[in-house]
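From the shared-data thread, chain only:
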Amino acid sequence: MFETDVQSWLKDPTLQNEIFGPATLLVHAGRPEELLEIAQGLDGNLTATILGTADDLRNSADLLALLEKKVGRLIFNGFPTGVEVCEAMVHGGAYPATSDGRSTSVGERAILRFTRPVCYQNFPDTALPPELQETNPLGIWRMEDGRYVQPPSPNA
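Structure, as C-alpha cells:
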C-alpha cells in the first residue's frame, strides 16, 4: 500500500502508472473539490471504486459523471477483484486502459475484438455464408430484431 496527498499526486503523473498485482495508492483528500481534481486528472482506467454511504453516492453526482468517462467499470463499496463473464460485464475503459474502446476483454461483446463486421445487402441465400442464410442450415441461435431466436427444429 502506498500513500500520497492530492498536490503530490497532481504534480507527479507517474503515480498513475498501472501496477499489476496487489497494490493500492491511497490519495488523501481533505475536501470534495479535491476528489474532482483527482478525477479530472485521471487517465483512462479499467475501474474506479467509491467507498461510502448511500448519501455520499447521492452527493457525488458530479464525481460519478466524471468517472463514467474515465473508466469501464464503476464499483460502489466493493473491490475490483475479478469479473464475471456475462452479457452485462464490460472490462475495458477509456484509453489507455484499453487500446480500442469499442470492445471489451470479457463478456458477450469480447468477440468484437476479433471481428471485422461485413454487411451483405440484397444477397440471395445461395451467395451468403451458411451462418447468414435464411434457412439457417447450421441451426445456430441468431439475433433477429434485437432478440435471440432459436433455430428451427430439424424435424420442422
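The longest helix spans residues 32-41.
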